[in-house]
Amino acid sequence: MRTWWLLGVAIILCGCVTLGMSHYDEMYGQSSVQVRSVEYTQGHGSEYLQLVKPVLEQRCVVCHGCYDAPCQLKLSSPEGIDRGLNKERVYNGTRLLAQAPSRLLFDAKSTQQWRDKGFTPVLNERAQSEQANLAGSVLYNSLLLKMSKPFAQQGLLGNEFDFSLDREQSCPSMDEFNDLAKNKPHGGMPYGLPAISQGEFKQLENWLKKGAKMAQIAPPLDAELKQVKRWEQFLNQSGLKHQLAARYIYEHWYLAHIYFPEQNSSTTPNFFKLVRSKTPPGEPIELIATRRPYDDPQVARVYYRLMHERSSILSKTHMPLALSDKKMTRLYEQFIGPDFEVTELPSYEPEVGSNPFKAFSAIPVKSKYQFMLDEAELIIKGYIKGPVCRGQVALNVINDQFWVAFVDPEKNSIPAVSELLMRHEDDLALPAQEQSNVLPISSWVKYANRQHEYIRAKTQLANELLADGKLLTTDLIWQGDGHNDNAALTVLRHFDSATVVKGFVGQAPKTMWLLDYALFERIHYLLVAGFDVFGNIGHQLHTRLYMDFLRLEGEQNFINLLPQDVRQEIKNHWYRHSNVSLSEFINRKSLLAAPTGIEYTTDDPKTELYAKIANALKPVLSQRYDYKAIKGPLAKLNNLPYQAINLLPQVSFVLQRQRNGQHKAFTLVHHNAHYNISSLLNEDAQRAFEEDTATLVPGFIGDYPEAIWYLADDANTEAFVTQLQAVRNEQQYRALTQAFAIRRTHPQFWQYSDLLHEVAKQYRGVEYGLFDFNRLENR
């Protein structure tokens, strides 16, 4: 009965659409932007929030939520739904000229302005009748196409489905949709996933019939608004010292999702974004929309405001930051209390704004460094979850798994170090000062020479300060002030995405970074504040190449803690089969002459050093993702043979049903090994497949699940582990997915998706956000 009903609707509506495409204007009038906004307390608004928004989030936003959403279609907010589609890709590493930014809320103030910028609607914008609202909606017809042409349940999808990141995108207007339906009948939505249920389809259909009215979520609580007022007052005081501090804070926190835990005990509080506004506290926010957070605002006075985040929360962009009275006191102690004077505010000229060592030279190094360390995970998440970290070319500058620790601020802010940074502030300039259109090679040599000068001076100073080796011990490492678990982090690359978490996660890695203030700051201004996702190929290439310097410098800081006679040997092993790149050549002489002050007792000093650092940080070392805490059959997955690991996707989520009906969650992470990561493009040639490792941890790591495994009971778990251990080829891997995976074609895919998110809420709490299914494998 259901099948006949769907076919009937499809035939009727396809007829309407076909007729409409030839006489649309005559039938329904000229296209014009519609007013769809209603109050959240009204009937249509309440219906949208309670019945429609949950369906869109669970079935649509999991693929259409951010910069990398197909066709720039962001269904995570009313503004995004109303904005619609655009054929131009944001992520395009080959464009010769920077493109105009298309950031929702920032780069256009109305739907009409988005139309003027080339976005086409997914909702009907002609006559508002029930028939026209369905026949003229790309959203509706995309859902209907999938409902009328479902794919086979289970099994693999054919070659007509393309799931690659750089795949061709159709992005049809209603004028083009009929041709799409004929030429690509498999192109219905959700793309490459099962159709939504009949009940969900009817829910969206009814909403669309009525004109697709939408409401924003309820406003923040009064207690939260009170905190917003306090923080805006704190950040917008008139003194030059206060204004400089607020600018520095903003340029490091602008990607964060700020919340007030003391005012909201819920696991899903209201979140806010720190923004620049033309208007002071108490007035409506008028956003300053510049490409970068330090670009010239073109106003006499910038105000830093907290804007309510009303979009759906996505795991891949969610970076929660808790603000409290204690945090405000800490900021006062770091930026206002210290005895320094600000006689004038820095300019916003690119050569100043892009260089934090110039712009914020008046602020003591210790204050800036402590501020960054306090929320080190958040700062590094900026380049993991910010716009830069998407795509294999953007990420092949880092290893698949490495640990991160930091130089102690007491030792990194002595007068000699501060003087070094002041003398070499020009050498510390970053490629972002060239703006978003840059020639790749012509200015590259300039930055290479500057890096060479800085590294030479830094190494010389270090050799002088550490000549006796007494300071070159684990005491050099920041130990989190005895309580801060940001002191130890792990970065995990998943080929074309990445994750950063607290703690030293997994087996001992190939490499480790030890960051000092200047290095930490440059990483942020290179990959976050200074990166323009809309920039040209030169800008993106410069960013990638310059990051080589910073990675090598971080690795070098770690190597210098090892015995002198093994430093070069270990570095050579990290860069096997490598032609000497320019960045490696420049860093070649950065090995310290000073001896280490650490006593080593084994013939494996690198592993011994890992253990010593972990022991020094033990009081603050997060155990949240401790792979050793996993017991039973699943523990064997931490020792899989490399042949099985080679066939695994980068990130797999495992749900294990318990006898009481509850579920435990695990993440199986595949770490790709490399002989070196010097090559910009030919990554496969540098792969050391026999050295691949895998780590199974409790909970969720990553935002883009590539495989979802469901283990129904103990016997199922045993069988899964045994079969995975024996996998040696693609055919055996597909047999494994047939037996245990929730594939794209699973008939209950959406029920398992809901379960996955429900379990993730329990595990992640305030860190919870919707996963992204764009990388889900078809195997």
List key phrases describing it.
disordered N terminus, single chain, Fatty acid cis/trans isomerase, Fatty_acid_cis-trans_isomerase, isomerase activity, isomerase, alpha/beta, four-stranded mixed beta sheet, 779 residues, 28 helices
Describe the structure.
Residues 1-22 have low confidence and may be disordered. The radius of gyration is 27 Å and the shape is globular. The chain has 779 residues and is an alpha/beta fold. It has 28 helices and 12 strands. 40% of the residues lie in helices and 9% in strands. α11 (325-336) runs antiparallel to α14 and α15 packs parallel to α20 (517-529). The strands form 4 sheets. The chain has a 4-stranded mixed β-sheet. The protein has helices spanning 2-28, 43-61, 78-83, 111-116, 130-135, 138-148, 174-183, 198-209, 222-235, 240-253, 325-336, 350-353, 356-359, 365-374, 376-385, 392-395, 409-412, 415-423, 444-465, 517-529, 537-559, 564-574, 582-587, 605-616, 642-646, 714-725, 730-740, 749-764; strands at 257-259, 271-277, 303-309, 320-322, 401-406, 489-493, 498-502, 511-515, 651-657, 663-671, 693-698, 707-711. It folds into 4 domains: 2-209, no CATH class; 219-345, no CATH class; 376-624, no CATH class; 627-767, 2-Layer Sandwich (Nonspecific Lipid-transfer Protein, Chain A), CATH 3.30.1050. GO terms for molecular function: isomerase activity. Pfam families: CTI (PF06934). Keywords: Isomerase. InterPro entries: Fatty_acid_cis-trans_isomerase (IPR010706). This is Fatty acid cis/trans isomerase.
